[in-house]
Amino acid sequence: MPITEIENLTHLRALVGKEVAVSDWFEVTQERVNQFADATLDHQWIHINEERAKADSPFGTTIAHGFLTLSLLPHLVSSALKYKTPPKMGVNYGLNRLRFTSPVPVGSNIRARITLQSVEEIQGGVQITWNIVVEREGAEKPCLVAEWLGRSYE
Q1: How far apart are CA 24 and CA 79, in angstroms?
Q2: What is the rounded CA–CA span in Å between residue 132 and residue 125?
């Protein structure tokens, strides 16, 4: 997918209510899932034990942690959306809503659909609310939906 380039905050405000970008597909590998398990100390078998997951899981394979999928949002969004003149500083402000709506089996490709919900003035900058839908290639249902807030300072 082509990268969406945003000129400035005036341009950004004109995009409220629109799907702004769609990221490229990104493969969720077992190695990445294992690294995430090590980083978070979440070694539940459904994520890391391929043999047991094949035998005992309703998915027939290991699945990514929901929080791994969430943690990939900065990469997915930044690979699809760029500022021509970036703000001096941007910070992750949190989430209003987050749901892990379906599993991500290891080996799946995921991508983010990025819609700008709002841009609000705050002291020294703006608060941006993005509606993010993470899709899994070939699946009917998204695997993650989120209302993600960021703050950009000029």
Answers
A1: 8
A2: 22
The SS3 of residue 133 is strand
Q: Dig out the tokens for 63 from the structure.
A: 């699945």
Torsion of CA 36, 128, 79, 105, to 10 degrees: 40
Two tokens, residue 137: 């290639």
Its pTM stands at 0.93
Greatest alpha-carbon span in the chain? 54
* Phi and psi angles of residue 12, each rounded to the nearest 5 degrees, phi first: -60, -45
Contact 12, 86 (CB under 8 A): no
The secondary structure of residue 102, as a DSSP letter, is S
Tens digits of residue pLDDT in 24-65 = 999 999 999 999 999 999 999 999 999 999 999 999 999 999
Calculated CA dihedral for residues 93, 66, 98, 91, nearest 10 degrees: 10
> Three-class SS of residue 125?
strand
